[in-house]
Here is the input.
Amino acid sequence: MPPPRTRLLDLLKTQSTIFSHSYNPDALRTGSKVLRQRLRGPSMAAYYPRRVVTFRGLMDLYPGLESWDDEEEDRLEHLDRLNARGKGAPKKRRTKEGELIVFAVGECY
Here is the structure.
């Protein structure tokens, strides 16, 4: 004759406290396996070389410097062409007072 379920659950609870395991009698998915793993962010960040100098960084350091960014100019020209055809991003909605309307996530009107 097998022991009653309550007695087995008490045994599991005692085992979990002794061996520092999580008590999960219903075998629910808790994500503890993923949380125990080592973090990947620092090793992935160390894999790629650091960007030493960027055009944006130079322009921020020397605001009076006369120069141009070819990639930025190309991007702006592309947006102008899209807007001329009516394919660009829509204008942001404003109230009568001139303020921007900010919607919460999931809200749409």
